[in-house]
Amino acid sequence: MSIKLYIDMLSQPCRALVIFMKTCKVPFEAVQVAIRKGENRKEPFLKLNPLGKLPVMVDGQFVLTESVAIFRYICRKFSVPENIYPSSLEGQAKVDEYLEWQHMNTRYKAATVFIGELFGRGNVDVDKAVSDMNQMMDDLEMMFLKNQEFINGDQVSFADILAACEIVQPMFSGRKVFDDRPRIKSWFERVRRETQPHFDEAHSIFYQGRERFLRKNKL
Q1: Is the pTM of this model over 0.90?
Q2: The CATH number of the domain covering residues in 3-77
Q3: Which of 45, 133, 169, 207 has the fewest CB atoms in 10 Å of its CB?
């Protein structure tokens, strides 16, 4: 029985998991749950995750939520490339270091800008959100990229995939997140290149939505 992955491809961690699993050739069945239609707040999905959050993984009778937990479960059950999640204690720890940091940094701060610019300034102080995101980008470059090509050295890992999917999110509104950031831009393009064609396939719905948003708002 193949793993089922309940996802919405407008969700950053959902996209990251799909890219990861396709890159690692892990067999799975994608089950689409449209957040914009409120499908995540209805039965039968709430039986899987009463919190109504995506992604959700179902492996037989075993149900697991939270993208990082799902990632680690897949790595323990299947053989994945060494660069994606190293077998060494030190290598895993460096990937995990970023995965623990990103929740309240890359994910939270990029998503806050996305929410503010998509749904209006009444919901978010956009100026502060952009300032916080810029600080996060400084920290990402200084702490995790330094003078290396990827977060864990010279090869792409799941940390890079997850980070790239988060940084794409504020680009939905037309924001140029790579302005004056050549190192992060080069890193992003390397991650995208190393995970093709899966990266662009996973972002196809996001790209389409972005184009519609920009046309509607004449940006």
Answers
A1: yes
A2: 3.40.30.10
A3: 207
